[in-house]
User: Which sequence fits this backbone?
């Protein structure tokens, strides 16, 4: 369930804070209080207890200051969320390859997918944020630049490259969401995964014995085994699909080279193409 929406506050103020163009607070009641410390505390709370636990009052308590002092640095929780998203999606130090140096796009997709999975596992609250309107800070642009650099050898159009990123991100977020929801269900009910399915077993056996669900009844016992790695299976198939398109483009010579023109600004309502 989505609990927060990015870009729902004062977007201009969020951008000023993200890009460092906002003026510094003229004074404050607590020496050492900084925007960086506020964002760090907010992320730590969200990681430990979920996004719902993040509030200006709670952050102030963690930092040992008054709630009103935080508003000298950030207008409110909506803008703070934009800063939190930019913080956790920072890909870290990255240098573009030298001109003329190629790259392995399959490896780039592989690294991208594993990066997304690690990001969602470290910060599962990200899965509950509506990022249809992403406030484009330094991390968002750095991530997108890195992703496009790794994929430019595919020979696809610019729109198709963005779609490759979106497809990869959507696949990984789906896998991560299932993992996160399984943990949440166990915590909410106090019942393990195995205990839940054991309670259903007698009913399922009776239903399948009637012959109305022959395909389900014929499934092997390990069809739903936790040992099957759905992430690895799905990622391999995703790469195979992209490879088929790349081979087709190489054969026909169709498609414009990536980077042939300036990238337009994201349309309102468009999804963020990369966040990790």
Assistant:
């Amino acid at each position: 369930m989505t609990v927060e929406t990015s870009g729902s506050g004062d977007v201009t103020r969020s951008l000023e804070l993200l890009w460092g163009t906002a003026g510094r607070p003229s004074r404050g009641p607590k020496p050492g209080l900084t925007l960086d410390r506020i964002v760090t505390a907010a992320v730590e709370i969200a990681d430990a207890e979920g996004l719902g636990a993040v509030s200006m009052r709670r952050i102030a308590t963690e930092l040992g200051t008054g709630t009103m002092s935080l508003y000298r640095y950030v207008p409110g929780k909506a803008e703070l969320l934009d800063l939190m998203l930019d913080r956790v999606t920072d890909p870290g130090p990255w240098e573009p390859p030298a001109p003329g140096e190629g790259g392995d796009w399959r490896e780039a997709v592989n690294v991208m997918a594993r990066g997304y999975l690690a990001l969602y596992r470290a910060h599962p609250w990200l899965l509950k944020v509506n990022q249809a309107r992403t406030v484009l800070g330094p991390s968002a642009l750095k991530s997108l630049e890195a992703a496009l650099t790794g994929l430019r050898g595919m020979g696809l159009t610019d729109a198709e490259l963005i779609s490759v990123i979106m497809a990869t991100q959507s696949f990984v977020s789906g896998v991560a969401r299932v993992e996160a929801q399984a943990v949440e269900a166990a915590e909410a009910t106090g019942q393990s995964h195995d205990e839940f399915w054991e309670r259903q077993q007698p009913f399922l056996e009776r239903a399948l014995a009637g012959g109305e669900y022959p395909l389900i009844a014929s499934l092997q016992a390990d069809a739903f085994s936790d040992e099957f790695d759905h992430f690895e299976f799905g990622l391999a198939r995703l790469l195979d699909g992209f490879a088929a398109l790349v081979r087709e483009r190489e054969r026909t010579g169709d498609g414009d080279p990536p980077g042939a023109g300036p990238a337009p600004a994201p349309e309102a309502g468009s999804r963020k193409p990369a966040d990790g």
Observations:
- The beta strands are 4-5, 129-130.
- The chain has eleven helices and two strands.
